[in-house]
Design a protein that fits this description.
Elements: H1 3-13, H2 18-25, H3 29-43, E1 48-51, E2 54-57, H4 59-87, E3 91-97, H5 99-104, H6 107-116, E4 120-126, H7 129-137, E5 143-149, E6 156-163, E7 166-170, H8 184-187, E8 191-195, H9 200-212, E9 218-222, H10 225-233, E10 238-242, H11 247-251, E11 256-258, E12 267-274, H12 281-300
Parallel strand pairs: 3-4, 3-5, 8-9, 8-10
Antiparallel strand pairs: 1-2, 5-12, 6-12, 7-10, 7-11
């Protein structure tokens, strides 16, 4: 079993045809078929079944796939580590972030890290936290900055960087905007503008509502924080958003922010990476950098 065979196996195992796998790997199609056949012969199991000119992975292939990804990842990391040593700092950093930290927290720190390590190229993937953590566990990302509830994450190290509490947002024209402290009963029957299901914000908002006995009378699901903010400015309802995402609008008087009645914060912006000893030098460097910079910021605050 060699790395080339595993690369071929991963490409075909991800749903690509032999022709597509060959094109992505810069090989000829018979070479791809040869590598797959040799891998099956060496392992003594059938990895793919052919049907209507398409290949479908067997159960054995699905079991092998995470091992193959990890082996290939470690080989790539070893090459990058040696390349970084040779080139004195050059490397690639694959970052993942959920929407709030990606938009409202990370940009100045990514810029500062670029000045700190100018030879490290950065790639940033932005998705819901659950999707980012899946990519991290699957060795498709190196490190993540995501908003998470205060709960353990299997196979990952999670370090809280800062609180990211949810707040109630409304238009200055809304009748409740004049009330400094709102009670749960005042929110009954209101339309709520909420994140889509599956996001950390939505999960915690649903849990808050259930805990305080609030039934959502009417919910409008919106996929982006900026969309929710614009809808709130038009007085379309009440919003539940991370406080960090609306500081500018609240400061400008475009939105009013109130505490959610009975809310206990369980949401934090966290640094997340795999629970393993082998991390490339530039990944370790970024982890130490972001910890240091945010610690300094929290001390100033």
């Amino acid at each position: 079993m060699n790395v080339q065979q595993l690369h071929v196996f991963m490409e075909v195992g991800s749903g690509r045809t032999l022709a597509e796998a060959a094109e992505r790997l810069g090989l000829k199609q018979p070479t791809v078929s040869f590598h797959l056949r040799k891998l099956e012969e060496e392992l003594g199991v059938e990895l793919f079944r052919k049907h209507s000119r398409s290949l479908f992975p067997t159960d054995a292939a699905m079991e092998l796939l995470p091992y193959a990804k990890r082996i290939v990842f470690l080989m790539d990391e070893a090459r990058l580590a040696m390349s970084e040593r040779r080139e004195k700092g050059e490397g690639r950093l694959r970052l993942g972030a959920s929407y709030t930290p990606a938009t409202y927290v990370l940009p100045p720190y990514l810029a500062a890290f670029r000045e700190f390590s100018p030879k490290v190229s950065q790639m940033l993937v932005v998705k819901q936290a659950a999707g980012i953590l899946a990519l991290l566990r699957n060795y498709e990302l190196d490190v993540a900055i995501v908003s998470l509830p205060d709960r353990p994450q299997p196979r990952l190290i999670v370090q809280k960087l800062m609180e990211d509490e949810l707040q109630l947002l409304l238009s200055p024209q809304h009748p409740l905007a004049a009330t400094a402290e709102l009670a749960v009963g005042q929110l009954e029957g209101e339309t709520f503008l909420l994140h889509e299901s599956g996001s950390t914000s939505r999960t915690l908002a649903d849990e808050w509502a259930q805990r305080v006995g609030l039934s959502w009378a009417s919910v409008m699901e919106l996929g982006a924080i900026e969309t929710i903010k614009e809808a709130l400015k038009c007085n379309m309802g009440l919003g539940v958003l991370p406080g960090r995402s609306v500081l500018r609008e609240v400061g400008n008087g475009e939105l009013v922010m109130r505490e959610l009645p009975g809310y206990r914060n369980e949401r934090y912006i966290c640094l997340v990476y795999r629970d393993e000893e082998q991390l490339s030098p530039h990944v370790r460097s970024f982890i130490e950098f972001i910890r240091s910079e945010l610690t300094k910021k929290n001390e100033r605050v």
